[in-house]
TrEMBL record:
Belongs to the TRAFAC class translation factor GTPase superfamily. Classic translation factor GTPase family. PrfC subfamily. This is Peptide chain release factor 3. GO terms for molecular function: GTP binding; GTPase activity; guanosine tetraphosphate binding; translation release factor activity, codon nonspecific; translation release factor activity, codon specific. Gene3D superfamilies: P-loop containing nucleotide triphosphate hydrolases, Peptide chain release factor 3, domain III, Translation factors. One of its GO terms (cellular component) is cytosol. GTP binds at residues 19-26, 87-91, 141-144. It is found in: Cytoplasm. Residues 10-274 form the Tr-type G domain. It holds the Pfam family EF-G_D2. It comes from Hoeflea phototrophica (strain DSM 17068 / NCIMB 14078 / DFL-43). HAMAP family: Rel_fac_3. Increases the formation of ribosomal termination complexes and stimulates activities of RF-1 and RF-2. It binds guanine nucleotides and has strong preference for UGA stop codons. It may interact directly with the ribosome. The stimulation of RF-1 and RF-2 is significantly reduced by GTP and GDP, but not by GMP.
Length: 524
């Protein structure tokens, strides 16, 4: 194993931020990028959002509804670490996209609003992280506002998430008097994040700390910190890395307090790129040969070009510009002539990427979500999920002459993961499926803007669908034969059973116990 490879891998931290809308994810992202030197001025993340939104018509939806649809990745360096921050759509209608992005990270930062505690979307995203044992660092944001008591917040995390907590810092004051963070184990404090250094102090009662607070708040602060040291769980690296315990940091993204604590925690505590499970073996991040998988496809921002960017997470070895990779799904070689890195405000050609890095690979439809790329080995990564849609519709075309064009357009949208496409076995027109209603709006906008196809949607006869399989092929064939009018094929040709409602789905499942019906398909 060449040393420099292990060193490069060891420097990488690939993470996502999970939170309920409005908890402060965007503000925190801006601050992280600012400290990472990736942007000059805080505020550019939002400015960038605006710029992108004007680039293409279909993003009008984002602008009008003030939501972020597009997953992107931002790379920055801080303190000799390379951070890859994978952004996720905030709106729950794009949940499948978010879940797939979480398959590409090694850690997550959970942002909690200090006044609101654990909110529904945070809980849901946390559950996805738990399924994959993704270690979580908690950032309790908005301490500069009226906030709950820190013990109460810790307790809520423990109760609602069944996750052990270890407070690493304690807020020096709350609301108006919030003036920094006190490090419980190190007996040190940090003021506003402009001041980089952690200042050692003589306990919480020292003038440097308690002295920052109004007199009537000092005693409570000293009592609370002593109680936190005595009564709270100490940090345990192993429990954190296994996903059983979360270190908790307090701060204010807006006022830039506690953000350096967080970024240091990501560097010091969060794990380097993890080993990834493939069908034939487990791939270590430091293995010499390149492997990678696609977790997201995005249409080119420029509507004049039909090419797409595949977001690829490197799992081992070196991904180098110009190299030839093997695409596992087809077994065919593929030249990686122009892989790209993403920084806050620009893209840059990537010469070399290591495990944990995310690169964009421009292509004309060769790559699909879940695809594995290797240096020749016939191996396939497991675990990029595809969720059964909750809404099924037929697409109605205003101009029937354009049916062929619609077919092509839907195929492309499905390959990008915008919608799922099901072709009924009986030859009737294709059915589109989505997890959230806003995805239908995106589809409609894009069909109009990019293909000149005005469409509307009609209810389909079905409302539920499941992927089906059976231990023996003849059993599956028999089931398909008997239900021909209710069977469709997905993009990969895998069979799907369509039912009018949950009741009839359950009924068929009981009648055919050998047929496995699943709501989540893992790409393979
Ligand atoms: P999101 O991406 O998680 O949805 O949240 P975002 O960062 O956009 O923050 C939501 C609102 O909360 C914003 O206010 C933002 O300024 C505010 N905020 C974020 N972090 C903090 C913090 O640490 N302290 C305080 N006091 N406020 C914070 P807004 O009024 O909705 O937007 P804007 O007009 O200020 O941009």
């Amino acid at each position: 194993m060449p040393e420099p490879l292990a060193e490069e891998v060891g420097r990488r931290r690939t993470f996502a931020i999970i939170s309920h809308p409005d908890a402060g994810k965007t503000t925190l992202t801006e601050k992280l990028l600012l400290f990472g030197g990736a942007i000059q001025l805080a505020g550019e993340v939002k400015a960038k959002k605006d710029r992108i939104q004007t680039r293409s018509d279909w993003m009008k939806i984002e602008r009008e509804r003030g939501i972020s649809v597009v997953t992107s990745v931002m790379t920055f360096e801080y303190d000799n670490h390379v951070f890859n921050l994978l952004d996720t759509p905030g709106h729950e209608d794009f949940a499948d996209d978010t879940y797939r992005t979480l398959t590409a990270v090694d850690a997550a930062v959970m942002v909690i609003d200090a006044a609101k505690g654990i909110e529904p979307r945070t809980l849901k995203l946390f559950e996805v992280c738990r399924l994959r044992d993704i270690p979580i660092i908690t950032f309790v944001n908005k301490m500069d506002r009226e906030a709950r008591n820190p013990f109460e917040i810790l307790d809520e995390v423990e109760q609602k998430l069944a996750l052990d907590t270890a407070p690493m810092t304690w807020p020096i004051g709350q609301g108006k008097s919030f003036s920094g963070t006190y490090h419980l184990a190190k007996s040190a404090m940090r003021g506003p994040d402009r001041e980089t250094a952690l200042t050692p102090v003589n306990g919480p009662e020292s003038d440097k700390v308690a002295g920052l607070l109004p007199e009537n708040e000092r005693e409570t602060f000293i009592e609370e910190t002593s109680l936190a040291v005595e009564a709270c769980r100490p940090f345990d690296l192993e429990a954190f890395r296994e996903g059983h315990l979360t270190p908790v940091y307090f701060g204010s993204a807006l006022k830039a307090f506690g953000v350096r604590d967080l970024i240091n925690a990501l560097g010091e505590l969060a794990p380097p790129p993890r080993a990834q499970v493939a069908d034939i073996r487990t791939v270590e991040a430091t293995d010499a040969k390149m492997t990678a998988f696609v977790f997201k496809i995005q249409a080119n921002m420029d509507p004049n070009h039909r090419d797409r960017i595949a977001f690829v997470r490197v799992c081992s070895g070196k991904l180098q510009r110009g190299m030839k990779a093997r695409l596992s799904r087809t077994g065919k070689p593929m030249g990686l002539s122009a892989p790209q890195f993403f920084f806050a405000s620009q893209r840059q050609i990537a010469d070399t990427a290591y495990a944990g890095d995310v690169v964009g690979i421009p292509n004309h439809g060769t790559l699909r979500i879940g695809d594995t790329l290797t240096e020749g080995e016939a191996l396939v990564f497991q675990g990029v999920p595809n969720f059964a849609p909750e809404i099924l519709r037929r697409v109605r075309l205003e101009d029937a002459m354009k049916a062929k064009k619609l077919k092509e357009a839907l195929q492309q949208m499905a390959e990008e993961g915008v919608v799922q496409l099901f072709s009924p076995e009986d030859g009737s027109p294709a059915i589109v499926g989505v997890v959230g209603a806003l995805q239908l709006d995106v589809l409609k906008e894009r069909l109009q803007a990019e293909y000149g196809l005005p469409v509307s949607f009609e209810m389909a006869r079905f409302s539920v669908c499941r992927w089906i399989s059976a231990p023996e092929k003849p059993e599956l064939e028999r089931f398909i034969d008997r239900h021909r009018g209710d069977i469709a094929r997905d993009l990969d040709g895998d069979p799907v059973f369509l039912a009018s409602d949950q009741f009839s789905l359950n009924y068929e499942a009981e009648r055919y116990p050998d047929i496995k019906m699943v709501a989540i398909k893992e790409y393979h």
